[in-house]
Amino acid sequence: MKGERCVLLLSHSAEPLCTDAVAGALARRGARAVRLDTDDFPAALALRGELGFPGARGLVLDDRPLVADSVWLWRVWPARLDPRLPAEHHEAAQRESFAALRGLLDLLPGVPWIDALDAGRAADDKARQLRLACDLGLTIPPTLITAEPAAVREFFAAHAGQVVAKLQTPLRQTMRGGGLPTRLLRRDDLEALAGLRHCPMIFQRYVPKAMELRIAWVDGRALCGALDGARCGVDWRYECSADWQSHALPEPVHLRLAALMARLGLRQGAIDMIVTPAGDYVFLEVNPTGEWMMLEKELGLPISEALAQALLRLANDSQREACKP
């Protein structure tokens, strides 16, 4: 098709839902989607860079130049290593594979991303998120990030034992979730905190909830689902008997979230918030590439369509800028 847009989708080999949905939405708009499963590189993905010699073609996929008008970054997963590779070489192989892939993707200069790899990695800093959210007028829970057992005990006492503990990053990357659940800290736990010296954690005052929100943010749009707070436990990902319901954010909350996402440099993200019994909105975190398919499937929220629309708009805007004299 003349003038057909090409969008590069960065995903992984075990992801069958969100990536296919975005590819389908692009196809319905007459665009072509090229999917790269990042864990296939380098063993099963013929991707290379050619620079600085006669006939060099830049980024090459399957012996053909790879030209994209925009890029959607959904997942960059560690390389699937050959099982015959000795264990002592795994760390170096993973590190070098990621460094090579990152460098190769830089051979798409001037191409707009949702969202750039470095932007997403920087935005994933939970302390930075909370600091910016607070600066922008969003309510956050009292928070302690520490490896000091004594500080945790003091924090626990200050909040009458109503404290949750959680990790800042997943322990591993899997489709079934790779972290530990956010859980209430028990008094018995206070005597077993020596391990913090090896693994600092986040501690927050427990926030009573009327609703727990997952907000799929796409280029300024908030597509929001809500769970009954009484039926989703401390961590809805692991203990939930509630069904998703649609929810409309109040305009002041939406505006503050828009300002936060702009400060983080993100056009997409999955934002977690709590609505308290008093009706207050409390910000917890944003996952730059957090899951949203359950909202699209159960509520019909057009998240993949919104992403396709944003990717094509960015491609068109970029071309117009390039054509200016």
From TrEMBL:
InterPro entries: MvdD-like_ATPgrasp
Domain of life: Bacteria
Domain MvdD-like pre-ATP grasp intervals: 7-118
Gene3D superfamilies, sorted: ATP-grasp fold, B domain
Pfam families in the cross-refs: ATPgraspMvdD
Name by which UniProt lists this protein: MvdC family ATP-grasp ribosomal peptide maturase
The organism of origin for this protein: Nannocystis bainbridge
